[in-house]
Amino acid sequence: MNEYIFYTSEGYTDAPNESCEIENCQLLGRACGRNKSEAQKNLVEENPWIIEAGFNSGEFFVEQVLTKEQRANIQSLIDYLWQDEERRYEESEDKSNQIFNVLRALKEI
Q1: Contact present, 103 and 88 (Cβ < 8 Å)
Q2: What is the three-state SS of the chain?
Q3: Can you give the C-alpha Rg of the chain in angstroms?
């Protein structure tokens, strides 16, 4: 199951200093699903206030969030590949096109 975060630029919020006008986005919530569409359906079903408040689900911005399980799987894969790819990287003359560069970037995250 994937997790997604939903936000919108519809509506407005007030700044702590009410005399300031601001444009920003509003976080609507998080939901899980096999894909964005299923997660959005779940979000709206679990939070009927979203539609009741007048938000248009066609205007939502959606970003996938890595779950703890997905992060752990990525880390396991990096750990598994690290030593072999590090050795290949060090032995190679072409350092620019190496999967090790990708692994290093992921490991730093």
Answers
A1: no
A2: CEEEEEEECCCCCCCCCCCCCCCCCEEEEEEEECCHHHHHHHHHHHCCHHHHCCCCHHHCEEEEECCHHHHHHHHHHHHHHHHHHHHHHHHCCCCCCCHHHHHHHHHHC
A3: 21
Other CB atoms within 10 A of residue 60 CB: 19
Instruction: Choose between 79 and 21: higher pLDDT.
Output: 79
The number of residues in the chain equals 109
How many Å apart are CA 108 and CA 65, to the nearest integer?
A: 18
pLDDT digits (tens, 9 = 90+) for 64-80: 999 899 989 999 999 99
75 phi and psi angles, rounded to 5 deg: -65, -40
Predicted pLDDT of residue 53: 94
What is residue 89's predicted lDDT score, i.e. its pLDDT? 87
The b/e string for 79-91 (b: 16+ C-beta within 10 A; e otherwise) is eeeeeebeeebee
